[in-house]
Amino acid sequence: MIHNAAAVSLLLISVLSFVAHGRPISDDFIRLPSDRSFIDRAFPHSYGDDDIGGTRWAVLIAGSSGYWNYRHQADVCHAYQILKKGGLKDENIIVFMYDDIAYNEENPRPGIVINHPLGDDVYKGVPKDYTGENVTVKNFLAAITGNKTAITGGSGKVVDSGPDDHIFIYYTDHGGPGVLGMPTYPYIYADDLVEALKQKHASGTYKSLVFYLEACESGSIFEGLLPEGLNIYATTASNAEESSWGTYCPGEEPSPPPEYETCLGDLYSVAWMEDSEDHNLRTETLQQQYELVKRRTANENSGYGSHVMQFGDIGLSKDDSLFLYMGTNPANDNYSVIAENSLRQISSRAVNQRDADLLHFWDKFRKAPEGSSRKHEAQKQFFEAMSHRMHIDNSMKLIGKLLFGIEKAPEVLQTVRPAGHPLVDDWDCLRMMVRTFEAHCGSLSQYGMKHMRSVANICNAGITEQQMAEASAQACDRVPSNPWSSLNKGFSA
Ligand SMILES: *[C@@H]1O[C@H](CO)[C@@H](O)[C@H](O)[C@H]1NC(C)=O
Ligand SMILES: *[C@@H]1O[C@H](CO)[C@@H](O)[C@H](O)[C@H]1NC(C)=O
Ligand SMILES: *[C@@H]1O[C@H](CO)[C@@H](O)[C@H](O)[C@H]1NC(C)=O
Asked: Which UniProt keywords are given for this protein, alphabetically ordered (predicted)?
């Protein structure tokens, strides 16, 4: 491997090509005074007072760790502040975050986390229900279903809801087809998540549930899996085949303060949050927010953005106001949402979530003094991330060729099932194939999740565990020594 700055610069050309040219910033949303009678006519399902006949619950989760993933925990902290100002009580908000950002040695403002270039601290007051090693898929699913005995560690808080209650779940992190990342292994598999939601429904402990999901290929989590009739409405940052996008990244407009070498937020996430915190949420329906978030996240004309999707009981979105789930900040009582007017075009640039770590290492490298140990460290981190990517991409390609032949392999691995069909029929096969791959080739880790569709297609093609093990052993003679490939934390499946 070549270790010099010129090589880093060359590699970076590909990274920087992900950053689009921005459009001028226009802060052109219009605030209109609320007129109670107008609101009641326009929004017959909005509620006249704070009595919604039940309790609002929320589960907020950031699935990552590491300073290069600053934005996910910033998103979750920000979401907490909105719900808190909306009137939800701490006892009803359950927060999962690794909590390694605020006091990270890379954080230029110790103890403070921001989610917008000019934003205030969003870290203060956030409940630390499940942090560090307690951020597990088991605890997350148990918190949703309300099963206290299944919880290990943490505050023990779960969604202890009743039949009249409303539940809001928000997840943000990396993902891949059928899978959502976690700061601990294993990751969240779509079938387990949807099963937990079905269980919650079967227990009769909510009136309606809204799920906002930001991750790459997040549409694949509900596609063909989340049925109608559970009173669950979900939106995802992207469809089943595309990445989602980080925003407020170094080099964007507006850019984070210069001392931040990391993205501050994610595009879909800041779109719903900045919309929610500017309006009287009694007067805004889920559907109106979806339309606004969809347009901002699509980032039309720039070529950088993703397709926000709706799943489940979409009818809920037209009937229900955001107020049922998020409450509303009394300071916004006079700021009603009036369709197009409230679309804020803040940033038209974005960075593919999958490249945000490289952007961090590059920005760190670029700014570190010549010859410093910091520069050396950033260079090493950059090369490790790049070589992990190449290793995973090449191993997967080679395994495909060994299993399906040189000509047929790309077609089999890249097959996308028609809309409405789940990624894979046998999810246990998918988990088994991931473990087999990782045993021979090392951890897929954050970047490798992009290959989950190939692994799913290996199952769909009827390959056996034995065949997969032989192909993986041939493709990878050993697990690479870099930290991304490490199996220390176990398998991701
Ligand atoms: C709760 O979790 C425990 C431990 O995992 C399990 O044995 C039990 O069946 C669960 N209860 C329900 C109602 O699902
Ligand atoms: C996990 O939870 C336990 C029990 O609440 C707590 O003692 C421990 O400090 C937590 N670990 C982390 C890393 O937060
Ligand atoms: C909303 O407008 C009314 C009438 O102008 C005013 O009395 C009230 O204080 C305003 N509320 C807020 C929260 O700004």
From this structure: Disulfide bond, Glycoprotein, Hydrolase, Protease, Signal, Thiol protease
